[in-house]
Design goal:
alpha/beta, single chain, two-stranded antiparallel sheet, eight-stranded parallel β-sheet
Length: about 350
């Protein structure tokens, strides 16, 4: 069992996680609707280059290119029988980059949602979901990851299924949820309720937090909600999008600048996060700004919502900016559902 994440958390006040995978792969030639996970076999050099760019920018944690690599998501591409192959390939690419970095870099096996709705609302049982996540987790472990990183969850049932499935490996587990619907997840869970539920999971988590969502302002606000309901010793994750997603000419673009991401990183530290990185739209350039912003930074008092808005923009659910962002987020979800 790898202890690298625990070791680094014991040694350091904070760690920097990497930036985006999907949006950076679009820049590298991935077409909308294609599976990024197939590139682990078809274009491993491009995946390695992305990981290398994040490590060189200063990431302490790099996530594998396996976000949608479970049997349900891969069935959309006719690749449901390649789950083990693709997860192991993704893990090995990241492992090789991390081992060549010349310093400790944690390899985190990314595990995103199945895209299915769980009982009693939908057809999928927690048991079936757990089995799918366990299949993915075993392959990631065999490929050499240090930790399993469950991300972008929206419901209690899927979070439970993912953690239960990941636990079969004995590896440390990190989980994040996405609060993008008026300060709640798509399934109606608030940040404080989310971490309280996370505390009840039998497997236990090394860290819990928030990722993706609307933009950095809303992300920091969700971190405030999580940290406000946390227990002493909880490690909180902030992995926010690079600004607000906007839909132009058939593509989603992110409004964030390196300066915005630097402000976001410092506010996330003030809000209680110890693992800070970027999500959609975050390039190695943005990540370097996060690294530099946190270097020698002494966290200040917990920010107010006014503090967050002054640096990162509006938080109000009814604001025009957030309404546009919510529309863009739904378009992104629709494309993911279509594959």
């Amino acid at each position: 069992m790898s202890d690298l994440l625990h070791t680094l958390l014991a040694e350091r006040e904070y760690l920097v996680a990497d930036g985006a995978t999907g949006t950076n792969l679009f820049e590298a030639g991935l077409m909308t609707g294609d599976s990024p996970e197939l590139w682990n076999v078809d274009h491993p050099d491009r995946i390695a280059a992305l990981h290398r760019g994040m490590a060189e920018a200063g990431a302490d944690i790099i996530l594998t290119n396996t976000f949608g690599c479970n049997r349900y998501r891969m069935a959309l591409h006719g690749a449901q029988d390649r789950v083990s192959e693709l997860n192991m390939a993704g893990a090995r690419i990241a492992r090789e980059v991390a081992d060549a970095a010349g310093r400790p870099v944690v390899v985190a096996g990314s595990m995103g949602p199945t895209g299915e709705i769980y009982r009693p609302v939908g057809p999928l049982s927690i048991e079936d979901g757990s089995e799918a996540f366990a299949e993915q987790a075993r392959a990631l472990a065999e490929g050499g990851v240090d930790v399993l990183w469950i991300e972008t969850m929206s419901g209690k049932e899927e979070l439970e299924a993912a953690v239960t499935g990941a636990a079969v490996t004995g590896l440390p587990i990190v989980a994040t949820m996405t609060f993008d619907t008026n300060g709640h997840t798509m399934m109606g869970l608030a940040p404080d309720a989310a971490i309280q539920f996370a505390h009840t999971l039998d497997a236990g988590l090394v860290a819990f937090g928030s990722n993706c969502g609307i933009g950095p302002a809303a992300l920091v606000d969700s971190v405030l909600g999580i940290s406000g309901a946390s227990n002493e010793g909880d490690v909180i994750v902030a992995k926010g999008n690079c600004g607000i997603p906007e839909y132009h000419d058939g593509h989603i673009h992110y409004s964030g600048t390196p300066e915005i991401m630097a402000d976001y990183a410092r506010l996330a530290r003030d809000a209680g996060a110890r693992i800070i990185g970027g999500c959609c739209g975050t390039s190695p350039v943005h990540l370097r700004a996060i690294v530099e912003a946190l270097d020698t930074y002494e966290p200040g008092p917990r920010p107010s919502r006014a503090d967050i808005e002054a640096k990162l923009g509006a938080l109000a659910a009814g604001s025009e900016a957030l309404e546009r962002a919510a529309e863009s987020t739904e378009r992104r979800r629709s494309r993911r559902r279509r594959g």
